[in-house]
Amino acid sequence: QMRLVESGGGLGQPGGSLKLSCATSGFNFDVNAVAWYRQEPGKEREWIATIDDRYATKYADSVRGRFTISRDNAKKTVYLEMNNLKPEDTATYYCKQGVAWGQGTQVTVSS
Length: 111
Prior knowledge:
The chain is mainly β.
């Protein structure tokens, strides 16, 4: 059974940093891409970054240059390092592999 568990959310300061983790199990992590999404209340879920099995990365324009996605195959974990946080980054952040989603972790950016 595929399982994705996000962690690392919390309160961040504008201009500050947070690092999210997505721990996975139940699938062949090494050969699969994993993506991060986020969702604000009342809005559609927004794709923000993907890392594939060759460590190639893609980013949404809204986070490019500020967020970095990475993976550790030994730990079957994907990370999202978020720098220069903005209030508009406030959302629930989810990781996704195939059709499986994690439960999400809340990020709030406020002074």
